[in-house]
Design a protein that fits this description.
The structure holds two protein chains of two kinds. By secondary structure, chain A is α+β, with helices and mostly antiparallel strands. Chain A is built from 23 helices and 16 strands. The two termini of chain B are 24 Å apart. The chains are: A alpha+beta, B mainly alpha.
Chain lengths: 619, 423
């Protein structure tokens, strides 16, 4: 053993030899890398690298006819790398006074901005002042070489040539801490100071519109001058421009609608029934979308927020209103479909003496369905509602109500469409549990009678109401209402928007309803007969809704022409009084404008545009 | 008290000094790599450099405790320790599958994670030492050879199953100890392997002509030596040189004619000969810029620009050598390389003076492990070795590796201090 161990002991030499050999090779390599080779020194020694984000052009937005709604304008962000800016340089001391003067800020603001940048990163660039205008940019850029650590980064802001559809188009703004946090977990795409869609289609199509950021790696010398691209641009990444978007919106109709709504609070929503594309999405009061752009965005936003008329609210989706008599369409359709009434069914009406709901219109005492719709007979639709939920085939009033509620849901009420419109509200169609709780389980058709005429707990958004009009126009189905028409590169739009929804109402009943709605314009007692147009057969239904805010809301749903309707819409004018006073003529003018391209009823148009409704209460 | 005093007198202070020097260089390098002006204190426990201090403290404490434990403990329990870490590798494997993909960590809760593969190397060294130290074991016997090989291959396979290729490669280091203990064939594999790798890499990094010149000069020197000393075996030596020339020739031929372009590029990228800015080549390129820009004396402590801009990912763990190179220059890197070589040589010298086979085998094992770690890690940073993510012993940030390497070394120092007590 001992001898063999001795001979084995010599093996230590080879092991040590290998250790030393590798060590020597490494030392040689290090010497050549660090001392002999000047190449790496040049790459790194006096040159710092600057990673300049290349912002892609955000996609443009057009209306259905190719008219430009949103485009980009160049602005300049002043960036700072705190470490370079804070570096003590005795030859060229950083002149804060001159610098502040140049940027038109005071010293406190300078310190605050610098601290914010430092907090973000000491070594990486952060925005110091965003969206410097073109004029200021030229002025500052000339002398920027005196201030190491600062440089400009180009970016674009949104511009709206027509200043319409502010809520629909939405806006972009600096990403918030909360959004940043969320993105970190999902995509990790955004950095502090990046812009992101905050509302409207800017929000719903953020990913498509924004494109993909690129990167340019620049070498920068000690004097803050860019010395060219690093590694011949091998690390650079070209930005990918965002997709353009074509909306279903008709900008002329939208502008016209906004003019009609001046001086009134409310909303107009118009869709193309055959596609579900929104033609006009008016909420009033509105604002100029160009206000929420650029450096004054925050200030303007605060002002708009403080406005008692609340112009920032998109009433077309966030306003929930009692539909009033426009809801009789829904009640009537469900009553017919459930077999609870037929078009020939008559109910007795004693006018203002009717119980439990009085009638507000004077007409024959026992109307059939067609007459009831034309005259908007309250007792008729209360009886229809009662007949539906009391229908013995459901085996109980609560089960009957359950069916009724499910049908309204299928028709798009009490729910969101979840297409491409952010911040939709659901409205309200109560659950049976709600009534069970409210009335201790003791309720019947009389207790909830208001639902039959679109009052009480029932609340709808103008968008939902417009969808009811589209459903009747299409004789039984609808496409979920949405804003987009197509992408500029013709990639497919989400399937939910092109999928037909059929709530399961027999087209023959919807046709009966359609004929009834036609008589609202054409009939001798039709509530909108004054707005009948000879060459455009319109259908509609007025609503005059009681509400807790004062005078009645003036509501109207309509579509035209009666065969192959091109447009369906809902109009709600808060506290406008009777449906026929404001909402019906405005709807009719919108129809005329869209189908004819111009209007002939100048007096009516003038009266509507110049009409003002006085609002005492804050909204 | 008496026992402790005798320990202090017997331990090898040179090893301790080399160890502490490396640990301190590592700590300051981590501080510099991760320096944050908002947290300018090296003791700031919210930063990685503060945390590393905790790991260093814990390692010193455990190392100290090991020095107090009876030296025979590690021999007696070597198999138990081995199986404990083998079992924990199993746990990681099962646990790792339950979470997602491959992971080599066990979460102990409270933010403390533990990487068994770092400790498994030590366990394997102990088990191999325990086994080869048995009087009835002779590496010339086939049965004993198989057991010895299995002791190394079992943990290696488990680590490979975790997808931790880097740590698995480290187990190759046991070839040094097996060679030393006379495992047949290991010498040829080792020398042949090292030579082949060296010749292959050097031929591609420098080029064929340079290699012919180097080999030619070596041949002339060898021939002169043989002619002067009139030693035998000149024919054998000539055959070796013939093989080397043929290899260098075929490297070039195989590389340029047999391999396809994308395969060629991949090898060149791994060798840092070609820049692949999007992939692994980017790290190597940035690492080389950082080290290369250090010059002879370096940019000075905390003055590095390249490592601080996050150009080099993993700069405080696997690429810590960049910081040494940029801020310490060639002086710094040479000192670190020499410290490592000194430590390795010292361990071999200490191992050879052991009376017990257990201690010697253990010493060779840990020298091999340290060597492979150092060679791969530094080689990667200077573009001589493909990017393999394993830590630089005593320098890289990380609790598991700091603890494991310290324990590994402390056990050996204890064995050495105890060597005279073995008859």
């Amino acid at each position: 053993m001992r001898t063999s161990n001795n001979s084995l002991s010599n093996r230590k030499l080879l092991v040590m030899g290998i250790f030393i050999a590798v060590g020597v090779i490494y030392l040689i390599r290090l010497f050549s890398l660090q001392v002999l080779d000047k190449h790496y020194k040049q790459l790194a020694d006096n040159n710092a690298l600057r990673f300049v984000t290349q912002y892609p052009a955000r996609g443009k937005v057009y209306d259905r006819n190719g008219n430009l709604l949103v485009f980009n304008e160049a602005v300049y962000d002043l960036m700072v790398i705190p470490k370079q800016a804070m570096k003590k340089d005795t030859l060229n001391p950083f002149d804060t006074v001159v610098f502040c003067h140049l940027l038109e800020i005071d010293k406190a603001s300078f310190i605050e901005r610098m601290n914010k940048a430092k907090k973000e990163s000491y070594l990486k660039p952060s925005p110091f002042m965003t969206q410097v205008s073109k004029e200021n940019y030229a002025h500052i850029a000339e002398v920027l070489y005196r201030f190491p650590g600062f440089y400009f980064q180009t970016r674009t802001v949104r511009h709206y040539p027509n200043a319409i559809a502010a809520h629909t188009l939405g806006d972009i703004g600096e990403i918030s801490a909360k959004e940043l946090e969320k993105d970190k977990e999902e995509e990790n795409y955004y950095r502090q100071g990046d812009y992101i869609g905050k509302s409207g289609i800017e929000k719903s199509y953020e990913k498509e519109l924004r494109g993909v950021k690129g990167l340019k790696v620049m070498m920068v010398d000690v004097h803050n001058r860019e010395m060219g691209s690093f590694m011949d641009g091998e690390l650079d990444k070209e930005p990918v421009a965002g997709k353009d978007i074509y909306l279903g919106l008709d900008s002329e109709l939208q502008a016209y609608g906004e003019k009609l709504m001046v001086g009134k609070i409310g909303s107009i929503v118009a869709v193309e029934p055959s596609t579900g594309q929104i033609l006009a999405f008016v909420t009033s009061p509105t604002y100029d979308p160009n206000l929420l752009v650029g450096r004054e965005r925050g200030q303007h936003y605060k002002e708009l927020q403080a406005d008692p008329m609340k112009p920032l609210i998109n009433r077309a989706i966030s306003g929930t209103y009692p539909p009033g008599s426009t809801f009789k369409t829904v009640v009537g359709l469900i009553a017919m479909q459930s077999g609870s009434i037929t078009p020939a069914t008559c109910f007795h009406c004693s006018g203002t003496g009717s119980l439990p709901i009085k009638c507000t219109h004077s007409h024959g005492s026992s109307p059939d369905f067609a007459n009831a719709i034309m005259n908007s007979c309250n007792p008729y639709f209360y009886e229809s509602f009662k007949a539906t939920i009391n229908n013995p085939k459901f085996g109980g009033i609560k089960e009957g109500y359950q069916y009724w509620k499910e049908m309204t849901y299928k028709m798009g009420l009490g729910r969101k469409f979840d297409t491409d419109i952010p911040y939709e509200r659901k409205g309200n169609i109560p659950d049976r549990e709600y009534y069970d709780k409210m009335y201790n389980g003791q309720w019947n058709s009389v207790t909830i009678r208001s639902l039959g005429i679109g009052q009480g707990e029932v609340l709808v958004t103008p968008l939902q109401l417009c969808n009811i009009a589209a459903l009747i126009a299409n004789e039984g189905y609808y496409y979920p209402p949405h804003l987009i028409k197509c992408f500029g590169d013709s990639t497919a739009i989400p399937e939910v928007m092109t999928t037909k929804v059929d709530p399961g109402i027999d087209p023959k009943y919807v046709r009966t309803m359609k004929n009834g709605l036609r008589t609202v314009f054409s009939g001798p007692a039709g509530t909108a007969r004054r707005y009948e147009l000879k060459d455009i057969p319109q259908c509609g239904k007025t609503g005059t809704a009681q509400n807790p805010h004062g005078n009645y809301h003036s509501n109207f749903i309509a579509f035209a022409p009666v065969d192959n309707p091109k447009i369906a819409l809902a109009v709600i004018i808060e506290n406008g009084g009777y449906g026929a006073t404001w909402a019906a003529p405005i709807a009719s003018l919108m129809i005329e404008k869209y189908i004819r391209g111009y209007t002939v009823r100048e007096d009516l148009e003038k009266r509507m545009m110049e009409g003002r409704i006085s609002y005492k209460n804050e909204r | 008290m008496n026992e402790r005093n005798s320990i202090i007198g017997k331990i090898d202070w040179l090893t301790i000094f080399l160890y502490l020097a490396l640990v301190i260089i590592g700590w300051f390098s981590i501080f510099s790599a991760k320096y944050d002006e908002m947290h300018p204190s090296i003791f700031d426990l919210s930063q990685v450099y503060g945390k590393q201090l905790i790991w260093i403290g814990a390692s010193l404490l455990i190392g100290f405790i090991i020095l107090l434990i009876d030296a025979k403990f590690f021999n007696a329990f070597s198999l138990w320790i081995y199986f404990f870490f083998l079992a924990s590798l199993f746990v990681v494997l099962v646990y790792g599958k339950a979470t997602k993909g491959a992971t080599s960590w066990i979460d102990l809760g409270a933010g403390v994670k533990f990487q068994p593969s770092e400790f498994a190397k030590m366990g394997t060294a102990l088990a191999l030492a325990g086994y080869l130290g048995r009087l009835d074991v002779d590496l010339q016997k086939r049965k004993n050879q198989i057991v010895a090989a299995l002791l190394v291959l079992a943990p290696m396979a488990l680590v490979l199953l975790q997808n931790d290729t880097g740590s698995a490669i480290v187990f190759v280091s046991f070839i040094f100890v097996l060679y030393r203990e006379g495992f047949p064939g290991t010498g040829l594999v080792m020398v042949g392997g090292v030579a082949a790798i060296l010749l292959f890499v050097l031929t591609l990094v420098w080029n064929q002509t340079v290699m012919y010149i180097i080999l030619g000069s070596l041949l002339v020197l060898t021939l002169t030596y043989y002619l002067i000393t009139k030693k035998k075996g000149i024919v054998k030596m000539l055959a070796v040189f013939a093989v080397m020339f043929a290899f260098v020739f075929s490297v070039d031929y195989a590389f340029n004619k047999v391999l396809q372009e994308h395969q060629r590029n991949r090898i060149l990228v791994l060798l840092g000969q070609l820049d692949d800015p999007q992939g692994v080549g980017y790290n190597v390129h940035q690492s080389k810029i950082a080290i290369g820009s250090g010059g002879f004396t370096g940019k000075g402590f905390l003055q590095g620009t390249q490592t601080k801009y996050d150009f080099v990912p993993e700069q405080h763990t696997d690429f810590i050598f960049c910081t040494v190179g940029e801020e310490g220059g060639f002086l710094g890197t040479a000192i670190v390389v020499l410290l490592y070589i000194s430590l390795l040589i010292r361990i071999i010298i200490l191992a050879e003076r052991q009376r017990s086979t257990f201690s010697r085998v253990y010493g060779y094992s840990i020298a091999g492990i340290l060597f492979v770690h150092v060679a791969i890690n530094i080689g990667m940073a200077i573009g001589l070795v493909p990017v393999i993510g394993i830590p630089l012993p005593f320098l890289s940030y990380g609790g598991s590796s700091m603890l494991a390497f310290t324990m590994m070394l402390a056990i050996f120092v204890k064995q050495d201090a105890n060597r005279l007590n073995i008859l």
